[in-house]
Each structure stands twice: as C-alpha cells, then as structure tokens.
Amino acid sequence: MLNYDIVVIGGGPAGMAAALKAKECGVDSILILERAESLGGILEQCIHTGFGLHYFGEELSGPEYADRFIKLVHEQKIEYKVDTMALEITDTNVVYAINKTDGLLEIQAKAVILAMGCRERPRGALNIAGTRASGVMSAGTAQKYVNIDGYMPGKKVVILGSGDIGLIMARRMTLEGAEVKIVCELMPYSSGLTRNIVQCLDDFGIPLRLSCTVIDIHGEGRVEGVTIADVDENRRPIPGTEQYIECDTLLLSVGLIPENELTRAVGIDLDPVTSGAIVDEYRETSHPGVFACGNVLHVHDLVDYVTLESQTAGEGAANYVLGKKAEAAYIATKGVNGVRYIVPQKVNLNNGNDVKLYFRVGQTYKNAAISVKYNGEEILRRKRPRLAPGEMENVILKKEMLEKFEADGLIEIGVEV
Question: Which domains does the chain have, with CATH numbers?
Fold first, then answer.
C-alpha cells in the first residue's frame, strides 16, 4: 500500500490549485491522480481567451492558464499519475485506482480532495423525438473534434442550449466556416455569461431564441434537419409554433453534471440543487478528511473562481492533516427568495477568517438587492443592477461578524426587488 498525506483526484485546474495550496501550507506528501493522458483537464481544449482575468489580471487561453499551474506542479515537485482512474474511496480514506503501468493501486490517504470536474448532459436525458442519426453531439465533444483532433463536425449547425460551451462553439464553428442557423434556449433567459452572448452571438449575427426547444430530429444516416418550437411557462411546446430548420449538425449545450459517482459511493451527503457535496467553508464534506472543490462541487462560470475555491479546499485539507482544524461550531446557510443554492452550506464560527458565500439566482433580475439575514435579522444588503442565473454571485461574511453569531444559527440570502 502507498501512503500519502493528501490524495487529489483530478488533475484539472481545481486539483492542481488545491494541491499547490496544500503544499504551500506545509504538506509535502501529495499525489494527484488524473484519468486523462496529461494534466490540465478540460482547459486543454478551450483554446479561446477569457481565462485568468480575475486571478492573473490578464487574458489567457485555456491551455495557457493550465500551463501556468502545470509548471508550478513541476516546480514544487508534487507527484502525479496520469492515465489513472480512481475507482473507489473507502471509509478509512483508502483510494483505489488503476492504470496500465502500475496496475491496481491501493493508496492510504490522511485526506482526500475531490476535483473530478463535471460532464455534459447527453441527448438521452432530453427525450427528444427523432432518429439516431449521426451529427448529434454535445458542444464539448464538438469542441474537442475542432480544437484537438482537427475534425469539422458539420457545416450547417443548430445549437440547443445557451450554456457557455454552446455559445463559444457557435462562434468557433462560424470561424471555421460553418453556418450556425440558430441557438435555441428552453428557458426565458440564457444560462451563459453576458460577455459570451455579446462576443459569440451578437458579434456574428447568430440569433438566440429564448423559450424555444428542439422537438424532433430528422434524418436517417445523417441529420438532415430539426423541428423547433416555442414553449410555454411549463416548458411544453406550443402547438402552431413549429418551425423546420435544415441542418446537418445539432450541438447540445444543455447543462453540466458534477462527476460525483465516487462521492456518492462513499456515502457523502449531496446537495439536491448543485448535485455536489454539502461542504463547510473549507470545503470539507460530511465524510471526515474528504474535501471537494471546483465543478464537482458546483458548476462555476469562471475558472478563476474554481482556482480560488480549490485553494480554500487545499488549505482545509492541509489544516486537517496538520491537526489545525478548528473546533466545530456551525451555522447553516440557505437560499431564499430567488436564490437557488449557496456554497458552502455551513460555516464554522471558530475558523477565525472571513468567509465568502457563493450563490446563484433562479431567474434574471434588474435593479434588485441582495439581502443577507442571520436568524431573520438583516446583516448585509447589496444593490445589484442585474442578476442572472448564468453568473455566480458572492457575499463576504467578515470574521468580526461571525464572532457575534451562535452555533446552530441560520444565514439566509435572498433577492428583493
């Protein structure tokens, strides 16, 4: 059996940032496990710019952003194994993994950091009628074909879903010579960043149709077209609004699902809204010594936020290993009045630091206010000209404020218009 203080599962931006922070905090025995053939995660296929504006203060491509952390991992001599699949985590934090060089690995860890990222929701989850013709794929698959493999998925494209990957691929396919006919979005608002709507759709004259979905896929060997229709407030197609669009490719950008099979198997409590683990301010889960960060915890809009959150998890894991974890005195957090979820779901009053609470709203608001209440009494209020589901918000609870609270209290964040 191998022995490490910290095992990080996932070598993308979350895993690398967490490992580097744990190393900075004084833990030397760290191992990163990555199932792909190289570190970097999904950033390796994200060749567009827009990364690093918050963290580095400059605009980088995905590979450039990842490369900075890969170089730091090498400089800090943090061990890692690529092409390695984690299979199981036991109650005693033994990690089982496998690769073709070492075979089956049995690794005893004092702490485990979950950083497996997320995957795209497939066609099978959508119940779209029609044939199983080729040309239907997720936007991320198309991105890999174009940016990594050098293949062109199609020439006439319809995109279902206005998540950031779908918006970015609308621009990418256009730049490669394809005709993107339309982007359809089931909801009455886009789930992508405003900047991506402007830069990827508006700048290229690509129409975005809200409250609209694909109801049928036509074609036998290859997609020949799709039928779209408007939907009502219950997201059901409205008869008479059907429209046929000729295309040879349908890209799906219909949501991301955290890769939490390992998390679920070890019995960690999951949040029904985020589909990620329930965590405290250092991202420790309900299983002692197991931490979660990045898109496996909740889907982020910016990789910069993934990095910052993962550093928090890395520090938390280091504190756990070094015996510096504060005595527990928790208060809970809850989203109300338009706030779908909050991460972390609980906060230890004894940690002695400011705590940043991340949250998302469930619809678009203009000229609204964010109200933060402790046991029903308002303690913070922030005006926001615009709130949107595609853009993560945050508030900071100062340590001086936390010191005045009592265990078992409740923090609520809501929207007021």
Answer: 1-120+256-325 (3.50.50.60), 122-254 (3.50.50.60), 328-417 (2.60.40)
